[in-house]
Write the structure tokens for this entry.
Amino acid sequence: MWWEKILGRLPEKMVLICTILSFLIPYVIYKINAKLHKFGDPSWKREEEGKSSSSK
């Protein structure tokens, strides 16, 4: 059956899970860090970032 051929070519479940996690964990940390900076940076730092990004 064609389904068995496809399953035979896929990596083991653990390899697949670890591959997905190796992308998801850093991505989630990046998003959390961005939100923390958005809400936690002082006002002078936000102004400084706006000026530096517009001058580039």
